[in-house]
Amino acid sequence: MRLRVEFTTEPFDLDEAPAHAMAAREVIEAAELDAVDVGPFGNTAEGGADAVLSAVDALLRKSLEAGATRISLQVNVIGAGE
Question: pLDDT tens, 35-74?
């Protein structure tokens, strides 16, 4: 099964990326995921279910430890039709 995760961390800081956003970015970029897209207002990544779920667990833990007060995420099953 393949999954797509979309996430944002808050609070936002338009002047520089906050520590929690950098922590999330490091987790996603280090994970064995495909099609990683990191942006200022939203991030997406795709991969196998185990890799995505492990990355989401690490992302939540590291971002909260780094000061995130809110993390919004959506996980979708993606198939051959998408």
Answer: 898 877 789 999 999 999 999 999 999 999 999 999 999 9
End-to-end C-alpha distance for the chain, whole angstroms: 13
Secondary structure string (H, E, C) spanning 41-57: CCEEEEEEHHHHHHHHH
Instruction: Give me 25's structure tokens.
Output: 């970015």
The answer to whether 31 and 47 are in contact (CB under 8 A) is: yes
Question: Within a 10 A sphere around the Cβ of 11, how many other Cβ atoms?
Answer: 11
- Could you tell me the pTM of the whole model? 0.86
Distance CA 19, CA 25 (A): 10
Rounded to whole angstroms, how far apart are CA atoms 58 and 32? 13
Token code pair at residue 4: 């797509």
Number of other CB atoms surrounding residue 33 within 10 Å: 21
